[in-house]
Specification:
Elements: E1 6-11, E2 14-19, H1 30-44, E3 51-56, H2 67-71, H3 78-87, H4 89-100, E4 105-109, E5 112-114, H5 116-122, E6 126-130, E7 134-136, H6 150-158, H7 160-169, E8 173-174, H8 175-181, E9 186-188, H9 191-206, H10 210-223, H11 228-242, H12 246-256
Parallel strand pairs: 2-3, 3-4, 4-6, 5-7, 6-9
Antiparallel strand pairs: 1-2, 7-8
Length: 266
């Protein structure tokens, strides 16, 4: 797979997706967003990918929305505004593709993560960052409402109070503040330590039964927006399927033989 703004590496069941629009500090244009959506949809369908790490090779993680690109679609007519929203669909699709990807996604954030960058990592399963990370929900400062899913996802991660504070102030939040809020699980000294930890975490995930992980993510995503009984019903349904899997049999055999299970995703 060849992309203009994304670098991709797959090794030992871990896909490292690198945001590589470095000259624009990974500002999210329509074309860039389309590539992000495409790579996560493709990674979700690949059997040799069991976990994904999302990182940046730019000086910062993400500068937010590409305002110049977005401005080219602005219009002062109702019809023009309607058409602009349709043209902007890839912006909404990219975050949805991350959340809906059946493989767990770990965001490894260094330096600034602004606007659309926060939208993207809010759609990830787990977020880690380096000590120099800065998080900002910028849209109110440029006269817009964040519309790529962060206002829906962020309160489920950090709670309504912190989410509203970030949205209303458009302020900069440090790595340690983000950790206190629950936005990130861990803070690391620098980018090298961050990536080492992210890959180690991904390795822990890949050691488990792939189908069980995928079903677990589906149940977790579903359960965010429904009640306990409906979430449990889906989990039971998934287990009825998993009980017939080769991996479950392998788990029992490995336990009896006192060895690590060798899961095949079947």
């Amino acid at each position: 797979m060849k992309y203009k703004f994304i670098e991709l590496e797959i090794k030992d069941y871990i896909a490292t997706v690198t945001l590589a629009r470095a000259e624009a500090l990974n500002a999210v244009s329509l074309e860039f967003a389309s590539e992000i959506a495409d790579v996560f949809k493709k990674m979700g369908a690949m059997d040799d990918v069991r976990a994904i790490v999302l990182q940046s090779n730019a000086r910062i993680f993400c500068a937010g929305l590409d305002l110049k690109d977005a401005a080219s679609n602005f219009s002062d007519s109702a019809r023009g505004a309607f058409d602009a929203i349709k043209k902007s669909q890839s912006l909404f699709d990219c975050c949805n593709a991350i959340e809906e990807c059946p493989k767990p996604v770990i965001a490894a954030v260094h330096s600034k993560c602004i606007g659309a960058g926060l939208d993207m990592i809010s759609a990830c399963d787990i977020r880690l960052c380096s000590e120099d990370a800065i998080f900002c929900l910028k849209e109110a400062n440029i006269g817009l409402v964040a519309d790529m899913g962060v206002l829906q996802r962020l309160p489920l991660i950090i709670g309504q109070g912190f989410a509203r504070e970030m949205a209303y102030t458009a302020g900069n939040y440090s790595a340690r503040k983000a950790e206190k809020m629950g936005l990130v699980a861990e803070v690391y000294a620098d980018k090298d330590a961050l990536m080492s930890a992210a890959l180690q975490l991904a390795k822990q995930i890949t050691a488990n039964a792939p189908l069980a992980i995928q079903c677990t993510k589906e149940v977790l995503n579903f359960s965010r927006y429904t009640n306990v009984n409906e979430g449990m019903a889906l989990a039971i349904q998934k287990n009825m399927f998993l009980m017939t899997s080769i991996d479950l049999k392998e788990a029992f055999i490995a336990f009896m033989e006192k060895r690590a299970a060798d899961f095949k995703g079947k």
